[in-house]
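[scheduler] slot 2 assigned
[scheduler] job type: sequence-to-structure, two independent chains
[scheduler] chain ordering preserved from manifest
[runner] begin chain α
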Amino acid sequence: MGVAALLVLLALANGVKAGEAYCDACKGDSGWSGASKLDEIGNPEAIKKSESMSGLNTAQKNRVGIWKQPLAGFEAEGSDKQNNASNSEKSVLETPAQSVGKSAEENATIVRSEESKKMLVSLEDVNSSCILLDISENATEHISGSIAVPYTRFLSEGNLRSVDEISQILGSAGLSNDECIIIYGECMPCGGGPAPATLAYWMMKSLGHENVRVLDGTVKDWAAAGKSTSVEVATMPPKNYTGVFTPDFMATYDYVKSQTPQIVDARSMQEFGNGSIPGAINIPFESMISNGRIKEEAKLKRIFAILSKDRPVVVYTGQPTKGSVGWFALELMGYDAMLYSYENWQYNEAASKVSSGNATA
């Protein structure tokens, strides 16, 4: 693997924090709903029009000029007006009737398509031909027969380790490139949710691992189905794992800047309101999750209806852990998706301005 490719991987991973509290809203919907159409995504004329509005930041210009949405709740942070708007919006989103509806939705059976089985495997379809990989942090209960590699082992000082280091960790756990692997687990200190599993899935796909899927459920779901769990994990003799970096799963700054792809900001509404990539549309990653699981395709179809399948999609958050949920859901629905990070965008934008300033000096 080339040094340049490794730097791209590390730059994208910058800011992935061990124990990151990403799951505050993993258990339910965010209340987000899209506009009826967003065919102005990346439209230079629309962006130009939004830039003519003085006194607004990028996200506010996009919201008013491109998405034709009210500015309420997106004023400068700390203002009384913002607090009032946020409180008003919160009271609307958390009415008792909707809370009851949310609980009913969470308890409903999720229907999966045959196509989804390429990425998700149901509890019933797990068999002994695949290795179950638990990536939970400090788990006290495991699916019987599974091996454990906490996802935090793939991190060093908040960043993803190098390809060689990750390959060494996987090989030491008894995995090879040809294994059928089913990833499951949660960050329990963060409150649960699928983000660590989707991140590990994205990571392994980026290393060229083909035969890997995510378990459609948790250890508790497994136990509730009457299946065996254990406080112990299995051990396997070491094998040779050789990761080969594959750039198809991550976006670069230049690609995002080109306005070629549709851009999805999967952060919270508040984070989006405080600044975003020009032309991005806000679809919070929490809106793609129900009761700690990726929503069924019928619901994801409505969530992503504003996006065209004829154009690639780049999804980003502050850190790829959360963004991997959006990337996974988009891929599940058949979109050509890539993962990116807002930190990478900010870094390159700042470097570009410094470079421009030096050139004119």
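[runner] end chain α
[runner] begin chain β
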Amino acid sequence: MEVREHQFLAATANVDYSFRRLRGVGNMLFGGTGIFIDTFTGGQGGGTVWLHGYGNVFERVLGPGEAFDVEPGGWVYKDPTVSMEIKMVGLRMGMLSGSGNLVFNRFTGPGRIGIQTMYLHMPTED
């Protein structure tokens, strides 16, 4: 299971942990130098991982090639079989004209993704 940074609470002893940093312009917009993805793998007999999500967390199961777009702060976890790419769409029409880009994550199946119904942006202190 791959988990968005700051969502992990606890795991059983037979769960292995690693992490990686995702760099790139889209990730840097929301994470400064990028975001971290925590990876959990169950050992012999599996394991249990507890995660935190704001609001409610719903699981969406994607079929092969099925895509689902999520605002960058809206996802909690995904299966390793689910690919994720950053999409930026320019807003150039109507009332939103000239206001910049809309950024979201596109997840493509097969596999599960966990979506949280809200998320909290903490103000930074200088």
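[runner] end chain β
[qc] chain β: Residues 25-31 form the longest helix (7 residues).
[scheduler] slot 2 released
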